[in-house]
Design goal:
Oligomer: single chain
Strand order of the largest sheet: 2-1-8-6-7
Structural class: alpha+beta
Distance between the termini: 95 Å
CATH class of the largest domain: Mainly Beta
Helix content: 25-40%
Length: 137
């Protein structure tokens, strides 16, 4: 008899636990945050060798410039990994060849030279990045 009472208590406890988990799961589905656009608005301006500009506006939750660049469909880039991160040599199919004519891509944030490589350059809401084809002197 005692054993039966114990089994009933265990079964009732399991049913109660299952009910609580079900209610919590339904509550989570109803109250979970919806999908939304990124919290940061940034602009990226690419200045080509011929001084033409192409501007990209992005709403992103990215922390770093490279992540934000990866999210922009029309913006392409490539380069080689080095000691200081990715050394970008090509933007939108235009290659800057330092060994050829001393050209490279300069990165600016809010009109100041970026202090970090693109994988470590932090972004903040309202930042304006410029990627400029530059010929060294």
């Amino acid at each position: 008899m005692e054993k039966r009472r114990m089994n009933k208590k265990v079964i009732m406890s399991m049913i109660a636990l299952a009910a609580v988990i079900t209610v919590m799961a339904i509550g989570y589905q109803v109250l979970k945050p919806g999908v939304h656009e990124g919290a940061k608005n940034i602009n990226i301006v690419v200045v080509s060798e011929d001084q033409s500009e192409k501007e990209y506006e992005s709403k992103t939750d990215a922390q770093y410039l490279q992540q934000a660049m990866d999210e922009i469909e029309d913006l392409t880039y490539s380069g080689e990994e080095g000691d200081y991160g990715l050394m970008v040599d090509t933007i939108n199919g235009e290659t800057a060849s330092y060994s050829g004519n001393g050209a490279y891509w300069s990165f600016f944030v809010n009109d100041e030279y970026c202090n970090y490589g693109i994988s470590e350059q932090p972004i903040a809401d309202g930042d304006i990045f410029k990627i400029v084809y530059t010929i060294g002197e």
